[in-house]
Design a protein that fits this description.
Layout lengths: L1 E5 L5 E9 L3 E5 L13 E6 L9 E8 L4 E5 L3
Length: 76
């Protein structure tokens, strides 16, 4: 699924998620720049291309790999 993330700077990036659970998601984009991401940074995310407007959720980066990252959903 396509997801748009908004960074703390206000910049947005769009990528793909292939693993969604109650606790978080895995995220990748092309090209993937692991230097853009830091463990602990917060982003907001919204799934794209759904038949309805998806909610915007707050997430925290919990791990950064060489070509993807993991985001934990921050519970309100």
């Amino acid at each position: 699924m396509s997801i748009q993330l908004t960074l703390e700077s206000g910049d947005t990036v769009t990528g793909e998620t292939w693993d969604i659970s109650d606790g978080g998601i895995a995220f990748s984009m092309e090209p993937f720049d692991s230097n853009l991401w830091q463990k602990g940074m917060q982003v907001s995310g919204q799934l794209q291309n759904l038949p309805m407007v998806a909610p915007i959720i707050t997430m925290t980066v919990v791990w950064v790999g060489s070509d993807c990252l993991g985001l934990a959903i921050v519970q309100p």
